[in-house]
C-alpha cells in the first residue's frame, strides 16, 4: 500500500468543477465577464435532475436574483460532488520514462535476497509492466463520522507491488509530467482478486488511528459514568438520616440498573461501522526490465521473474503465497518452494510451517 498523506492534493475551484461536470453531460457553458460567474444552458433532463433552471447564471458569490450558487456548500455543488463520488472512473495511462539501464537493473537485482536460499540471475529482457491502481474511499462511523481515501497498487497478473518511486508517479492526485493517456485502453482483469484481498487490510491500517481515538473516548465516558454512579451508590448506602435497609437497597438497585443501562447505551453509541467503496481506478503501463531468476533451497529450485520498472530503486515486492501480502525479502518453504513474507515465515531457519502447503493438503 502506498501512503497518500505525504502530499496535498490540488483541488479544482468550485466553478471549474461545476462547469466540467455540466459539460460532461452536454450542457453549454460560457464563463462570464466577472471572475467566478458563468452562464450554462442545460438539457431539460439534466436541469430537472439537478433542480436548476435550464438556462442558469452560475456564481460562486451570487449577487443577483436568480443566480445559482456554486460555492462551497451550495446545493448544486454538493449534488454534483455526490454524483461524482458515486462513480468509479477508470483511466488508462502510460509513463513516458526511459527504460531502466542494464547496469542499474543489475545493481538493483543484486540487492534481492532469498532469506533461506540462493538467487541466481539467468537473463534480463526489457518490456513493460502493467499495474492497477485503485483508490478506495472508506467511512468510519461511531460516535462521529470520519471519511478517508487510501490507495493500492498491484501488478496486473501476479499481485506484485512497485516501490515508492514508481508509486509516486502513479499517484494521479498530483500532476506528473511523465504520465500520458494510453493510446489504447488497458485492462487488468487479474488484478481484481489481489485488490479485493488487500483492501480490507489497507483500510484497517488507515483506520487504526481513528479507532484508537474511538476506544479512548469510549473508555473515558465509561470511566466517567462508572465513577458518577459509584459516588451516588456510596451516598445512598450512607444516608445522612436513618433509613430502612430495604429502602436503601432498593435505591441502590435502582442506581445500579440505571448505570448498567447507560453503559449498554454507551456500547451502542461507540460501536464502530466501517464501509468502503471503489472511488477510482487507473491501469498504467510502465517500461520495465524483466529479470529471470532461479531460486534454490536445499535440493529444490524454482524460477521466477523479477521486475524493475523505470525509475524504481528496487525490484517489485513479490506476492506472498501464504497470506496474499507482499514482501521484498521472501523465504521459501521446503516442500514446494512457496515464497512467504516475514509474517508467514518470521524465521528462515529450519523447516517452515508453510500456510500455502497446509491449504493444499
Overall description:
The protein is of the alpha+beta class and 361 residues long. It is built from 8 helices and 14 strands. The strands form 4 sheets. Strands 5, 6, 7, 8, 9 and 10 form a 6-stranded mixed β-sheet that branches. Strands 1-2-3-4 form a 4-stranded mixed β-sheet, covered by helices on one side. A hairpin with a 6-residue loop joins strand 13 and strand 14. It is flat. The N terminus is likely disordered.
Number of helices: 8
Range of strand content: 25-35%
| Estimated helix fraction | 25-40%
Report the strand count. 14
Radius of gyration, in Å, reads: 29 Å
Spans of at least 5 consecutive residues whose pLDDT stays below 50 are 1-10
Structural class: alpha+beta
Order of helices and strands: HEEHEEHEHEEHEHHEEEEEEH
Euclidean distance between termini CA atoms: 31 Å
pLDDT averaged over residues: 89
- Could you say which overall geometry the principal axes of the C-alpha atoms support? flat
Profile the largest sheet.
6 strands, mixed
Structure at a glance:
The chain has about 350 residues and is an alpha+beta fold. It has helices at about 15-25, 45-50, 75-85, 100-110, 165-170, 190-235, 245-270, 355-360; strands at about 30, 35-40, 55-60, 70, 90-95, 120-140, 145-155, 180, 275-295, 300-310, 320, 325, 330, 340.
Topology:
Elements: H1 14-23, E1 28-31, E2 37-41, H2 44-50, E3 55-59, E4 68-69, H3 75-86, E5 90-95, H4 102-110, E6 118-141, E7 145-155, H5 164-169, E8 179-181, H6 191-237, H7 245-269, E9 273-297, E10 300-309, E11 318-319, E12 326-327, E13 331-332, E14 339-340, H8 355-360
Parallel strand pairs: 3-4, 5-9
Antiparallel strand pairs: 1-2, 2-3, 5-8, 6-7, 6-9, 9-10, 11-12, 13-14
Helix pairs in contact: 1-3, 6-7
Amino acid at each position: 500500500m502506498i501512503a497518500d498523506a505525504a502530499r496535498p492534493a490540488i483541488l479544482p475551484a468550485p466553478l471549474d468543477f461545476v462547469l466540467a461536470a455540466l459539460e460532461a453531460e452536454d450542457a453549454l457553458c460560457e464563463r462570464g465577464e466577472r471572475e467566478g460567474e458563468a452562464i450554462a444552458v442545460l438539457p431539460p433532463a439534466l436541469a430537472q435532475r439537478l433542480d436548476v433552471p435550464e438556462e442558469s447564471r452560475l456564481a460562486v458569490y451570487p449577487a443577483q436574483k436568480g443566480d445559482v450558487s456554486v460555492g462551497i456548500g451550495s446545493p448544486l455543488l454538493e449534488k454534483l460532488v455526490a454524483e461524482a463520488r458515486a462513480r468509479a472512473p477508470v483511466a488508462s495511462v502510460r509513463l513516458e520514462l526511459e527504460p531502466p539501464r542494464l547496469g542499474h537493473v543489475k545493481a538493483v537485482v543484486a540487492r534481492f535476497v532469498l532469506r533461506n536460499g540462493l538467487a541466481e540471475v539467468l537473463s534480463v529482457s526489457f518490456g513493460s509492466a502493467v499495474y492497477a491502481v485503485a483508490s478506495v474511499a472508506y467511512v468510519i462511523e461511531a460516535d462521529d463520522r470520519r471519511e478517508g481515501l487510501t490507495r493500492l497498487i498491484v501488478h496486473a497478473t501476479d499481485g506484485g507491488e512497485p516501490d515508492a518511486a514508481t508509486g509516486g508517479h502513479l499517484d494521479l492526485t498530483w500532476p506528473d509530467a511523465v504520465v500520458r493517456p494510453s493510446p489504447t485502453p488497458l485492462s487488468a482483469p487479474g488484478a481484481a482478486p489481489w485488490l479485493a484481498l488487500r483492501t480490507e487490510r489497507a483500510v484497517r491500517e488507515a483506520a487504526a488511528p481513528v479507532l484508537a481515538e474511538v476506544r479512548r473516548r469510549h473508555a473515558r465516558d465509561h470511566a466517567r459514568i462508572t465513577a458518577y454512579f459509584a459516588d451516588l451508590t456510596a451516598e445512598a448506602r450512607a444516608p445522612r438520616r436513618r433509613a430502612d435497609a430495604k429502602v436503601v437497597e432498593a435505591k441502590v438497585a435502582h442506581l445500579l440498573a440505571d448505570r448498567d443501562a447507560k453503559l449498554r447505551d454507551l456500547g451502542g453509541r461507540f460501536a464502530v461501522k466501517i464501509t468502503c467503496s471503489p472511488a477510482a481506478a487507473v491501469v498504467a503501463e510502465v517500461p520495465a526490465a524483466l529479470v529471470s531468476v532461479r531460486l534454490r533451497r536445499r535440493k529444490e529450485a524454482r524460477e521466477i521473474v523479477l521486475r524493475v520498472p523505470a525509475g524504481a530503486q528496487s525490484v517489485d515486492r513479490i506476492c506472498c503465497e501464504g497470506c496474499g501480502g507482499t514482501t521484498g525479502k521472501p523465504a521459501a518453504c521446503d516442500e514446494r518452494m512457496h515464497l512467504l513474507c516475514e509474517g508467514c515465515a518470521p524465521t528462515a531457519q529450519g523447516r517452515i510451517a508453510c500456510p500455502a502447503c497446509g491449504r493444499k493438503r
